[in-house]
Amino acid sequence: MPPHRDFVSLVRENIREHGDDRSFTFISEERGRTYKENVLGFAELDRKARALACRLEARGLRDKAVLLLYPEGLEFLTAFLGCLYARVVAVPAPLPDLDAERFGRTRRIIEDADITLILTDAAHRDTIDGWLDGGGLKGRVHCLDTSGEDVDPGAWTPPGFGPDTLAFLQYTSGSTSEPKGVMVTHGNLLSNGEEIKRRIGGSSDTVGVGWVPHYHDMGLVGQFLQPLYLGCRYVFTSPITFIKRPVLWLELITRHRGTITVAPNFGYDLALRRVTDRQMEGLDLSSLQVAKNGAEPVRAATLERMIERFAPVGFRPEMWMPCYGMAETTLLITAAPLGGGPVIRDFDAAALTRDTAVPHDPSPTQDGEGGGVRRLVSSGRPVTLDVRVVDPVALKERPEGHVGEIWVGGGSVARGYWRSPEETRAGFQARTADGEGPYLRTGDLGFVADGELYVTGRIKDLIIVNGRNIYAHDIEEAARDAHPAALTGAAFVVDPEPGRDDGVEHVVLVQEISTRAAAGTPLDEVASLIRTRAARAFELPALSVVLTGRGTVRRTTSGKLQRLHTRRAYLAGEITELARDLEPGVAGPFPDPG
Questions:
Q1: Closest to 478 in 3D by CA, of 422, 430, 539
Q2: How far is CA 275 from CA 210, 289, 308, 335, in A?
Q3: Any residues with CB less than 8 A from the CB of 167 and at least 6 apart, and which?
Q4: Cβ contact 139:162 at 8 Å
Q5: For residue range 347-372, what is the model confidence (pLDDT) as tens digits?
Q6: CB 212, CB 331: distance < 8 Å
Q7: How far apart are alpha carbons 187 and 194 in whole angstroms?
Q8: Which domains occur in the chain, in start order?
Q9: Which residues, including other chains, have CB under 8 Å from residue 466's CB and lie 6 or more apart?
Q10: Element (H or E) spanning 366, and its range?
Q11: Helix/strand/coil for 497
């Protein structure tokens, strides 16, 4: 850890050194598909943050949680840093919209964190006030527009900070459970900031470019707090602007000579699908040193296609830095060494279902059609964190080449879950059978081979068939590769119809489809092809495929698949089917017994 006891001291040291020579630049979309650069220098950010800290201090909010509901942009940065300066516990969250599920999640955060104040901008205050009123929260929860009421920043006096001072709550995405508030301290920020700095070779000359939302741990820590840690420039746009025109991301790297970018795998896939040959003209990605890929399974095909497609405009294999992290460890756990590029290896698929990682033997007897190979991308190596692979039941460390639960120890591991002592003990204070610890139990499965960590899936997404462990995302990837029309899919287990229990696991795959890419092929034939390929690849005795339109598969606000929510929607009859190929006994939808 660097010679600082708190994150604020480090940030203010960088501000004094660089002033407005370092800045955040937000690219907003104007009318007519034009873009505006909005720049906020570090010194100006510091002035605004100190002024807001005075306002928060006057409300007596020290060490209390405050909810931050902002659109993407620079004002969120001011609000977040102002909370840090005031020793107020910031709780970043997505702006609630008309989606009932999103409203419910925001309300659950308010209740869990005992929120009495919401910070937002002028454009959204009335909307949030109306939402609070309609939800019966008016009077108990107040809303503050942070863009108004100028206060003398010179009146700010730094409160006492230390490594154990709580900095913010990072509410998890809730892909498999109710959202929980991860308690991130100043010490955690300093530890993980150093982990990232050492892995990426970061300095004040680093230039970051990205679009991941600020309420996601990759966006908040990796894109907004890391530039403050390094004292470097950062250029960003909103996820919606990126999705509408993915080439903008690459144009910003070109224009600002970006040296690092960070995104989940689906962002790179979107660029591959949507950036046209004509848009490639004028792009120059040669300034990039690091392209991080994490937050969801990294696909070898994506890495290879990016290299092939964008090599003419300067994208090089050694730029790739697959990584693994989570909110419970502040962010980064492992990443590929700088300049080393990705490590992609083939493993025997059958052995992996028995929790053993055996390098694939490409003998002539294996034609690949039967799914005998599983290609995996290494998530790299830890910098200083203690990463173990442990049997989740026996609690004994697994030897290299054997699958188990990934456990993590070290200064980046957060304090625990907000006001959840039992879940904190279970998740953050685990010890091995021989008493080593404490460790964070990540809930992820993986193995180590030649020092490289391979993440194979989540414990809760395991599908057990005839004693073999099949990962839901492997079935989904096989389905996606089965036909050009296949998009995102979600695989899960359902119970058989009453009276038709045949003792096998019935797997349903809800598969989004592009009818245009089907190119006239009848969709029932597409469903049958996907079912045949995926079932054969994993020897699934009972697989049903349901084809549906884009946007059907449930996702979290950060884009992670919500298989449990998709399953519930399927069983409740809420999914519009375009075609189906169902296993007998799984006629669904039918009432969910759970």
A1: 539
A2: 16, 21, 14, 27
A3: 7, 84, 89, 90, 184, 185, 186, 188, 189
A4: no
A5: 998 898 889 999 987 664 443 334 47
A6: no
A7: 11
A8: 344-407+441-461 (2.30.38), 466-581 (3.30.300.30)
A9: 504, 539, 541
A10: none
A11: coil
